């Protein structure tokens, strides 16, 4: 049993009231964290107001050294981090090891980008009457950043918010997911061990509805970075008011397979994209569109590969897919499957559950009016559809109110280039699934998939402001 404290105002603090953290695979309680309150958040805000001044005063070299050391500490403890991710979350041990390694890379990228954060000279004499002026702009930190993170990547998505914030000279107040707070607290420990001044970071555990209102409402907080659902994102936007927001709000990603595609590669990518992390991934393949001439062949290959996936013990290296995060979410997934079936959908594989484990599921003939077709399911469920030509495929891919990333399988460069321009998404992945990301790339979507972009460099642009400097030179 891990009994963890939260970090507020430079100190580790416990509370008499706690939140139990369970292993979604075994449903056993593995630890507790303090149940934070609005009062705790107010204390964090006071601390962060001191911390933002300390953070802004850190030299570029100091920021780089802290982040580099933190990356090294994560590297030195990769297996411990992976075991923690796999225990409190939904990932298998192999998926967790990948996330732990990416976390170190995200921190390392943040250190490198700190070196690159700079401005530009400005040619003021481009405007008439300003030949006696010269100047430049530089970027300065916004101050305090509120970071709210999800359960599905409990370590790396924390690093994606904290790393760029620290690299650009900001203080951070972190609210990790209630289901997976242990990884965030572990990373907080490593940052402090790396030399981060304690006033710069506050990590508060607790219910979001109780803890976050003061964070969102405070005029001292100049940016909110959030990863989560659309409904929560809309509430945050309304409450936050006139402050910067960066939100990644999920998706319902399309996967297009044209008739010239390599079907073995396409089927393998589709299965991996649909069922990796138990489908609890914003980039998960949910809608598969296949040219009608190759439907049968593709479907047979997909089902064969999907049925080979093993579910069960997350710590077993042979396990391919872990559980759904909670009983409530498991029930929601199964309800959506049953509702689709009642409206005419056919289950081609899966469609069953045991405890919190939902079998890899593929359905056909899913009506466009169903939740399963229109919304993000966030589970190991995909639907199969056919198209006759390019225009029909693109139109179908674009018709839902999400647009994070899309996967396109084709060997025709003409089709690939057209799709890059015609798909209404934040990223088009050619000959791979929508579930592709490297930590340096701009990451985000359009429509209900969010506002702004993550990725270390892009995030740092949002976490800083340009300040223009103009000198008017008089003759001596």
Helices, strands, pairings?
Elements: E1 2-3, E2 6-8, E3 11-13, E4 18-23, E5 28-34, H1 38-57, H2 60-76, H3 78-88, H4 93-116, E6 120-122, E7 133-141, E8 144-148, H5 156-167, E9 171-175, H6 182-193, E10 201-203, H7 208-217, E11 221-227, H8 230-240, E12 244-248, E13 253-257, H9 263-275, E14 285-291, H10 295-307, H11 327-342, E15 346-349, E16 353-354, E17 357-358, E18 361-364, H12 371-374, E19 381-387, H13 390-398, E20 402-403, E21 405-409, H14 413-422, E22 427-430, E23 446-447, E24 450-451, H15 456-462, E25 464-472
Parallel strand pairs: 1-5, 8-9, 8-11, 9-10, 11-12, 13-14, 13-21, 14-19, 18-19, 21-22
Antiparallel strand pairs: 2-3, 4-5, 6-7, 7-25, 12-24, 15-18, 16-17, 20-23
Helix pairs in contact: 1-7, 2-4, 2-6, 3-4, 4-5, 5-15, 9-10
Could you describe the 3D structure shown?
The protein is of the alpha/beta class and 476 residues long. It contains 15 helices and 25 strands. The chain has 2 domains: 2-249 and 449-468, Aldehyde Dehydrogenase, Chain A, domain 1 (3-Layer(aba) Sandwich), CATH 3.40.605; 253-438, Aldehyde Dehydrogenase, Chain A, domain 2 (3-Layer(aba) Sandwich), CATH 3.40.309.10. The strands form 7 sheets. A 7-stranded mixed sheet has the order 15-18-19-14-13-21-22, with helices on both faces. It has a 6-stranded mixed sheet with strand order 10-9-8-11-12-24, sandwiched between helices. Helix 1 packs across helix 7, helix 2 crosses helix 6 and helix 3 (78-88) packs across helix 4 (93-116). It is globular.
């Amino acid at each position: 049993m891990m009994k963890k404290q939260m970090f507020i105002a430079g100190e580790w603090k416990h509370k008499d009231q706690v939140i139990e953290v369970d292993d979604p695979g075994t449903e056993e309680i593995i630890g507790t964290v303090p149940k934070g309150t609005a009062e705790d958040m107010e204390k964090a805000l006071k601390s962060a107001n001191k911390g933002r001044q300390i953070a802004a005063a850190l030299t570029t070299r100091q920021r780089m050294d802290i982040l580099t050391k933190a990356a090294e500490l994560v590297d030195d403890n990769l297996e411990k981090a992976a075991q923690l991710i796999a225990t409190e979350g939904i990932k298998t041990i192999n998926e967790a090891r990948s996330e732990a390694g990416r976390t170190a890379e995200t921190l390392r990228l943040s250190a490198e980008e700190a070196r690159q954060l700079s401005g530009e000279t400005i040619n003021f004499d481009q405007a008439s009457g300003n030949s006696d002026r010269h100047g430049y702009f530089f970027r300065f930190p916004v101050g305090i950043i509120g970071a709210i993170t999800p359960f599905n990547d409990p370590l790396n998505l924390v690093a994606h918010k904290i790393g760029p914030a620290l690299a650009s000279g900001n203080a951070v107040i972190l609210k990790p997911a209630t289901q997976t707070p242990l990884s965030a607290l572990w990373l907080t420990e490593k940052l402090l061990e790396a030399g981060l001044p304690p006033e710069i970071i506050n990590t508060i555990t607790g219910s979001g509805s109780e803890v976050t209102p003061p964070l969102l409402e405070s005029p001292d907080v100049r940016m909110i970075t959030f990863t989560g659902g659309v409904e929560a994102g809309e509430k945050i936007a309304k409450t936050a008011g006139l402050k910067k927001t960066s939100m990644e709000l999920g998706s319902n990603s399309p996967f297009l397979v044209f008739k010239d595609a390599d079907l073995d590669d396409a089927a393998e990518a589709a299965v991996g994209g649909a069922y990796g992390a138990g489908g609890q991934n914003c980039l998960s393949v949910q809608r598969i569109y296949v040219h009608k001439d190759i439907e049968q062949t593709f479907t047979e290959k997909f089902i064969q590969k999907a049925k080979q996936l093993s579910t069960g013990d997350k710590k077993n290296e042979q396990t391919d897919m872990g559980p759904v995060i909670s009983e409530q979410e498991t029930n929601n997934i199964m309800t959506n499957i049953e509702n689709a079936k009642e409206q005419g959908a056919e289950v081609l594989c899966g469609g069953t559950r045991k405890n919190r484990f939902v079998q890899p599921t593929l359905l056909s003939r899913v009506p466009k009016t169903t939740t399963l077709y229109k919304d993000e399911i966030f589970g190991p469920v995909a639907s199969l559809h056919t198209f006759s030509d390019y225009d029909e495929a693109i139109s179908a891919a674009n018709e839902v109110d999400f647009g994070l990333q899309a996967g396109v399988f084709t060997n025709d460069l003409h089709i690939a280039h057209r799709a890059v321009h015609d798909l209404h998404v934040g990223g088009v992945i050619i000959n791979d699934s929508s579930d592709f990301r490297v930590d340096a790339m701009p990451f985000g979507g359009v429509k209900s998939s969010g506002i702004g972009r993550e990725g270390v460099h892009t995030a740092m642009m949002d976490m800083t402001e340009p300040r223009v400097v103009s000198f008017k030179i008089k003759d001596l």
